[in-house]
Write a structure and sequence with these properties.
about 300 residues, alpha/beta, 8-stranded parallel barrel, two-stranded antiparallel sheet, 13 strands, globular, Diverse_substr_monoxygenases
Length: about 300
């Protein structure tokens, strides 16, 4: 069976959110993309001692200087489409009040006819935590646990009861309910996060680091699931941050998913062989506007399917 393909929606500052998001979403669905995705970057620090991903001295990319709010973006896409699944890869869960986040996801799923995928992570930006987090950065894992537990409770049958650090619900009714159980996928790499994924989530949201490494991580995760007695199969959606160029890159030092359409598809073929359920292709950082984004997305989709992805 062919790997499902998804497309990242235009959230960055070069796009007109109100016009381009519905346009790209509608067009991508018509092309054949089976899902549409957003990510979260709450702010862009102008003076921070913390580098990208917490690595000292690593600058934040300009593409992070103004990223549209993820659930608002998905709502625009939901209203313009009928079939495509609508996912977050990823939403930084501890930046949100758990109950309000759970209700927002439930409302979007009900409105879209059961198409939402909740992809969560803990994030890494101290500046974002200082601005928005409900709990301190040091408690980010516990904060994510509470978000997951509150979502499961709120999305389930009434009456809803839950007693947590932030959230306290005592026999309440909460509506609307999701149209179907919303899958929760997690970004996870360290051992504690992988255990949380196996025990509490429906699947995995890796970011491409090369086909061989992704394959090794996937085997490790499946082994852990078997070790912990998990019966339900894990879902998987690989995020690919592609950098499109009209001209092919020469030489062996070409970065992963960098280059023209043929080079991007060459890397897609290698990653599809790993056997993950789906690949999310995000092209928005390297395209000038929505028209170019749609053109490149169409070319990548056509070439990928022709190559057997």
């Amino acid at each position: 069976m062919a790997t499902r393909l998804g497309l990242g929606l235009p959230q960055n500052k070069q796009y007109d959110i109100g016009r381009d998001v519905p346009d790209v979403a509608r067009t991508a669905e018509e092309m054949g993309y089976e899902s549409l995705w957003v990510y979260e970057r709450a702010l862009f620090p102008l003076d921070s001692s913390q580098g990208l991903y917490g690595v000292e001295g690593l600058p934040w990319p300009e593409s992070y200087r103004g990223v549209a709010e993820p659930l608002v973006t998905l709502t625009l896409a939901a209203a313009a489409t009928h079939r495509a699944r609508l996912g977050t890869s990823v939403l930084v869960a501890p930046l949100h009040v758990p109950f309000q986040l759970a209700k927002a996801f439930a409302t979007l799923d009900a409105a879209s006819g059961g198409r939402v995928v909740a992809g969560f992570g803990t994030g890494w930006s101290l500046d974002e935590y200082a601005a928005a987090a409900v709990r301190p950065f040091e408690q980010r894992g516990k904060a994510l646990d509470e978000v997951i537990d509150v979502c499961r409770a709120v999305w389930g049958a009434d009456p809803v009861s839950y007693e947590g650090t932030v959230t306290k619900l005592s026999s309440v009714a909460v509506a609307p309910k999701p149209a179907r159980p919303i899958p929760i996928l997690l970004a996870a790499s360290n051992s504690r996060a992988l255990r949380r994924l196996v025990d509490k989530a429906d699947g995995w949201l890796p970011v491409s680091v090369g086909a061989e490494r992704i394959a090794a991580q996937w085997r490790e995760l499946q082994d852990l699931a078997a070790e912990r007695g998990r019966v339900t199969p894990l879902q998987s959606v690989l995020r690919v941050n592609a950098s499109y160029s009209a001209k092919a890159y020469d030489g062996a030092d070409r970065a992963l998913f960098q280059g023209d359409v043929d080079q991007i598809v060459e890397d897609l073929v290698a990653h599809a062989a790993v056997g993950l359920d789906e690949i999310l292709i995000d092209l928005q950082t390297s395209t000038r506007d929505a028209e170019e984004l749609k053109d490149v997305a169409a070319a990548v989709y056509t070439a990928a399917r022709a190559a057997g992805v």
